[in-house]
Model the fold of this input.
Amino acid sequence: DSVVNPEFLPEYGPKMIQLIGSSMMDPVNNTEKLGYAEGGIKITILKVNKMQLDNIDNLNEYIFKTMHHEFAHILHQQKKYPPEFAQITPANYDPIKWQERSNKEAWQLGCVSNYGSSEAREDFVEVIANYIVKSDKWWQDMLKAAGPDGSAIIKQKWDICNTWLAEKWNIDLQAMHEEVQKRQANLDWEMIMGLEFLNGK
Done:
């Protein structure tokens, strides 16, 4: 499958990964941008100067999740995601004031993050990225906090993402999640902290 297919990343992976120390601010709604994908070729990761190499939650939230989020954008730029995804909660998307919502409020609206509640394409990739990097406990706690309506919607969105990845890309989302969780649980922190110079320490 695509998780181990040696042809997948050379063909579809970003040809350029640009790392920038600071984040970018959106002047329209005064929000922080952590990364972006361009033309199915390049991923830019921002705010790398704030990496906490000894904090997996920080790395997941600001680096790894961003990478999976932006790579999912590259994938749907190549093969469009199902249009029915955008029709599940169209009235709940707010591209201007999404940042005024807490994550819990977004969960209750059926989105896995407040940023995901900004528009459908961000919602789509947020489902994928969060599921890959977040723990089973985090996911179950999120569904519980979302309430019965919100959790049912999130599960419906997850099903669409899962089916799309399987049918269009031969990617098993559950297997990806399990592999990432296994690797996170067996990180060599001594080696990682030996890379502190990358963080300006």
